[in-house]
Amino acid sequence: MVFPWQSRNNAINPGTTSRLLVAKAFLIGTFAFGTRCCDATATDIALDAKATLTHRIDSLNLLVYTFLLTLTVLTIWLFKHHRVSWLHETGLAVIYGLIVGAAIRYSGSSTPLVHLEVEPESNSTFNQTLPPDTLWLKFPGKLTPNGSDAVEDKTYAYTFRSQVYDVVENEIDLKATFDPEIFFNIILPPIIFHAGYSLKKKYFFRNLGAILTFAILGTTLSAFLIGALMYGFVKLMPTYLSSSFTFLDTLYFGALISPTDPLTILAIFHDLNVDVNLYALVFGESVLNDAVAIVLSGAIQNYGEHYSSTGEFETYAFFRALSDFFGIFMLSLLIGALMGCFTALLTKFTRVRDFPLLESALFVLMSYSTFLIAEASELTGVVAVLFCGICQAHYTFNNLSENSRTRTKEIFELLNFLAENFIFSYIGVSMFTFPKHHFDAVFIITGFICAAIGRAVNIYPLSWLLNLNRKPKISSNFQHMLFFAGLRGAMSFALAIRNTLSEARQTMLTATSLIVIFTVVIQGGAANFFLNWLQIPVGVDEEIEQLNNHQVRSVYNSMENTTNMSETYLQDCGDIDTNPGSSRRNEKAVLARLWGSFDTKYMKPLLTHSRPTLLETLPVCCNPVARLLTTTEQLTQIDNHLRSYHL
Description:
The protein is mostly helical. It has helices spanning 17-81, 89-106, 171-175, 180-197, 201-206, 208-235, 239-242, 247-257, 263-272, 276-307, 315-349, 356-376, 381-399, 402-433, 441-467, 476-484, 490-497, 503-525, 527-533, 590-607, 614-617, 623-628, 632-636, 640-646, and strands at 134-139, 154-159, 558-560, 569-571. A hairpin with an 8-residue loop joins strand 3 (558-560) and strand 4 (569-571). The longest helix is centred in the first third of the chain and has 65 residues, at 17-81. It starts with 16 loop residues before the first helix and ends with a helix.
């Protein structure tokens, strides 16, 4: 074969020499480029395969929890069908989680992880007391066959995850655990919002003084007492444990173990129609002490990080942390209330109710944004979203269309059910798969004892003080039931798992998880027995708050609109009663009565379509503003129920 640049006698044409060199260079370059492309393609294929494997493991991980929730739902149905009440759904979720966690840990199948040890250079500029946020690893890639320079250099960014404790972890172990921020930013908000949105306001406000006493004063007292007792006991423990705990660590443990989550007992109360005042005390305290605990734990952290220079008690640092506690709590409450009121105004003065789907979407987004606004402002989203839920139920709910009322109630009830059971399933799974548990029997037993002592100090002395000026009084069997209802749950676990870097925090996580499991499964399962033993009355008739097409009852003299806005209803929890001789007015808390009057005259007319209008309650000089804030529905509705009452 004769190439074009050759003559027929195989002699090279001098004029084509340069073209020959260029062609050879082109062929060599093309071959080298093709080799590099093949190597790069092989690297990309390997990375794609790793991404596919990660995606498959993520899917398997989610499938495990979906299976757990499905199994829990089916078992709950079976229990309800056969009227089994000795084990609640949360206890089932924990038990199933423990079984699946043990199967994951000891099944023998594993996908090993590839570990590469990296040490920082001695002249690194970052603060070496803390790990960097991201690690840029310059990886040489695959070497050429002859061992020369690498084909291609690549830099990979690795994000800080946690401290390494077990180098034999496998892929499924890591994937079976979640970032703790997922609990706070995604799972907890619907749980807390539902607690406020489904609050039985009538009985909550009737017992407001006792609930605030138990939830705020009692939880704070319990937290400090548990912290002090644990600190004293820890100092008597072996050196390896006592040296890892500071007084702030034990205070933090007291704060995270103080909130209660008596889902099991509340479900039994509801099924057996236990006295509504006892129900209100247990439920109201559990709703508010979650908020108190998270603010208190944040104040303790601020004390150690920003105010105290030694980590020991300092008067100035203590009062700074105390001011943080009250300031953050009140500002978070204010944000939640303002967002709830703003949503009520939007639904009142716009016609978004003509489009129920958009109305429901707006409701959900405004409620969730309350949590995010508070967190972004360095406040507490749990407190904000709780009081947002209370305001949404009290004001916004009355402006919604019937479809949106039903949809929002059901969607948050569903989210609450799934989120609660997911957390308890995760608690069970994580006992075997979470790599940073630190089991210490002495600390765990001490934690159980101190938690019980803290609960007793919360209930019995404060009940005695409340009974000095309370009617009806909190009886001794009610007090025992309040003590027994101190189950620990989602909030305690979420606070414990948020930071597990130190050995002390790992020990606290393990103790908290076991306390949660014990109280939910054993203590919750014995609730029926204690009700009978304490002779708590059941089957008590309840004044049911109805939220339906015809009427919406409220805690104050509030008139709630209906679907066609033609029938309205004015109901006071105690101030208006079908029995004129009843003495319910005197049963309401003083704070509730004072707020109720202001709410009826100004807040309800401003934020809902209720009567009386602002034209009737504001001074005459304010009529222009009052007319602007009064809707046509308020002016045209016929108050049949109120007229019947006065007649």
